[in-house]
Amino acid sequence: MAELTLEDIAKQVGVSRSTVSRVVNGSPNVSPEVRLQVEEAIRITGFHPNAAARSLASQRTRVIGLVLPRSVSSFFTDPFFPQLTQGIAVGCNANDLSLSLFLVTNKEDEDKIMPRISRSGMLDGILVQSGRADDPLMERLTNSRIPCVVLGRPFNHDCFNYIDVDNVKAAYSATKHLIDLGYTRIATITGSHGSTVTLDRIEGYVNALTEAGFVVQPSLISKGEFSETSGYEAMKSLLPHKPDAVFIASDLMASGAIRALQDSGLHVPEDIALVGFDDIPLAALTKIRLTTIRQPITQIGSKGVELLIDLIENGSQPPRNFILDTELIVRDSCGAKLRQKK
Amino acid sequence: MAELTLEDIAKQVGVSRSTVSRVVNGSPNVSPEVRLQVEEAIRITGFHPNAAARSLASQRTRVIGLVLPRSVSSFFTDPFFPQLTQGIAVGCNANDLSLSLFLVTNKEDEDKIMPRISRSGMLDGILVQSGRADDPLMERLTNSRIPCVVLGRPFNHDCFNYIDVDNVKAAYSATKHLIDLGYTRIATITGSHGSTVTLDRIEGYVNALTEAGFVVQPSLISKGEFSETSGYEAMKSLLPHKPDAVFIASDLMASGAIRALQDSGLHVPEDIALVGFDDIPLAALTKIRLTTIRQPITQIGSKGVELLIDLIENGSQPPRNFILDTELIVRDSCGAKLRQKK
DNA sequence: GTGAAAGCGCTAACAG
DNA sequence: CTGTTAGCGCTTTCAC
């Protein structure tokens, strides 16, 4: 069976192609009787308008892109990204949008994919997960005219539409929680170097310490890069400096840290208390349940879709942003249940 | 700047639109000099052909879809899916294809998404992850004419193009490994009810037991559904029946099983030996490193893309399939290092 | 090797 | 409220 066209339906009902088009697009300018007839014909035949022709004529594709840059090397090791993707997918489904996924794995990908993204008219808008200070992708994207929402805080946040959580505040509250529990040598394991999340979370950590009158000790700040293994290594390197608590910038790294502690014969939270970040499913399932900062990951995704749709329909000036709330989830790893709050 | 068209480039170089089109599409029928000039003009202007117009004229979109049905509820809890997605993305990048992601989360999604997938000409072909016996999606997909590759073994595998591993053989080798190590009360935790992976893995388990002269005991077969929690529950329910080893249909469930064992004060592998399935990154990172069956997850994805491209270009009859190899990865949880092989 | 011309199936003025 | 008429930007015969 050859694919049906508007014309076929029009002929069948005895109206013009335009009328059928109006019905398909929900235009009010169609008489009820005609509308019913056309709808019936469409239903019976299973007609579905051709997407390419539609896009060509209307300059709209109803497709948005999700770009995960090279810096996101951990698409499948950290549940954060799949969960974000899921949130976006749900938002797309709800709005009759299709989602195109661009996983950039190397420089060649980037060079090949970028023009397709920005110049071929294939996408109505894009979502980019990025918080790298120096991501070359961001610049290329800014130069293109395509509506764009960043998931995470862009380095130069005045120029972008973005969705984020207040990482400074969240890290502050995590660290403050440890301070309030009476810990005095509070370390931190950071995220990847150069990303805004990492900078913000360090800032929150420093703020809390400073506010409480502690001196920030560089030896208690250990660099991770969001992977489990990096959490393990970072924890190991922290041990000689005898921290009694650690704020860790992701749950995945926290699970690595726990592994390092186990290997060293130390107990959580008795010997060292831990607070993580993200609240991935794993956090509640480890043997020592993780106290952590919950991010509304799914909502970041769906809110991003919402904002993007708005930009597409109403223009993107001036840049807007939404800061979503985080929540401290107290479980076992912080030792709150063993200690007395001050 | 308005978007450039073929015509603009043509005018600029002083040739016809057709010639530019030929250059863009790598047709051999262009003189070297003209080709060079056109290429130069394209490079300078940054011209990129309009995807919609191209699709409309050529009936090709260079977009393929990845459909993850409702039954895949665990897109972000089990690393299997993200990893598969990554493999597919890499395959797409390598072949200048775009990837459209359809995460079906409920019945409404399915009804809305399906016609878009199969009738709107938006996709050149699709990849479906599915192994449910009764997935309604599969039937709808078969009825549509769109080239389709199933990732996993479809229930009625004669009718489909698919990529899979030999789950029967893999489960057999996992179970056989436990038998060879001298265990005598070997249990299994299965995957979700009704999926072909689950059936196949049970079959392999039964085969190994039978071959070794063991009687298959229903009380030693516990139903999971691929989630961590279900692994935990399944292990708990197995405990009263005193297994000395368990073959578990996924690493994620295995990690749940380990948690259950820890809660019960039992040690792996001293009290109970475990073999998992998948070899997700986590498997090598748990405190008790998991012996498991490694699936070439990424390759399943990229091979799927490859086959799909072939179907699109050369037709899909007769149905073809590729069965990829698995490998038993011996680590600590099976107790191989404590026991003497027979 | 190159150009002219005819669509691909749809939307969007515009006229009635 | 409805039909007519132009395209949207490209591919693809078909002549030359």
Keywords:
Rossmann fold; DNA-binding; alpha/beta; elongated; 12 helices; homodimer; 342 residues; 12 strands; 434 Repressor (Amino-terminal Domain); 3 domains
Summarize the structure in words:
Two copies of one chain form a homodimer. With 342 residues, the first copy, chain A, is of the alpha/beta class. Chain A folds into three domains: 6-58, lambda repressor-like DNA-binding domains (434 Repressor (Amino-terminal Domain), Orthogonal Bundle); 63-165 and 297-324, Response regulator (Rossmann fold); 167-295 and 328-341, Response regulator (Rossmann fold), CATH 3.40.50.2300. Helices cover 43% and strands 16% of the residues of chain A. The first copy, chain A, contains twelve helices and twelve strands. Chain A has helices at residues 6-13, 17-24, 32-45, 51-58, 80-94, 107-119, 136-143, 167-180, 196-211, 228-238, 251-263, 297-314; strands spanning 63-68, 98-103, 125-129, 148-151, 161-165, 186-190, 221-223, 245-248, 273-278, 291-294, 321-324, 327-329. In chain A, the strands form two sheets. A six-stranded parallel sheet of chain A has the order 2-1-3-4-5-11, sandwiched between helices. Chain A has a six-stranded mixed sheet with strand order 7-6-8-9-10-12, with helices on both faces. In chain A, strand 1, helix 5 and strand 2 form a beta-alpha-beta unit. The longest helix of chain A has 18 residues, at 297-314. Chain A is elongated. The N and C termini of chain A lie far apart (76 Å). The mean pLDDT of chain A is 92. The first copy, chain A, binds a DNA duplex (16 and 16 nucleotides) through helix 2 and helix 4.
